[in-house]
Amino acid sequence: MPNKSDQWPQNAKGKFYVDKTCIACDACVIAAPGNFKMHEEEGHAFLSKQPDSPQEEEQCREAMQGCPVEAIGNDGD
Questions:
Q1: Which residues contact 45 (CB under 8 A, 6 or more apart)?
Q2: 15-28 pLDDT, tens per residue?
Q3: How far, in Å, CA of 77 to CA of 67, rounded?
Q4: CATH of domain 4-73
Q5: Cα(60)–Cα(32) distance, integer angstroms
Q6: Which of 29, 44, 47, 55 is the most buried (most CB within 10 A)?
Q7: Could you tell me the pLDDT band of residue 77, with boundaries at 50, 70 and 90?
């Protein structure tokens, strides 16, 4: 279960986020490339932009459901 108090500082402010359990599998970047990016130096994904359309919202939800370690949450600030 994602933990919003343990999220990466690179996340864009808002309800979706990636926490520190991310294993850099790239699944979220593939599912929602306009919203998730990989931090190459630190080896983890982060939410680069909150969704601003129904399509992006759906892609972020797909990324969240496809995350193998449940590192993506949708209850952030």
A1: 18, 22, 24, 26, 28, 29, 36, 37, 38, 39, 71
A2: 999 999 999 999 99
A3: 20
A4: 3.30.70.20
A5: 6
A6: 47
A7: low
Tell me the whole-structure pTM to 2 decimals: 0.93
Distances (CA, A) of 73 to 36, 41, 51, 63: 13, 22, 13, 10
Domain ranges of the chain: 4-73
Place of tokens 């929602």: 32
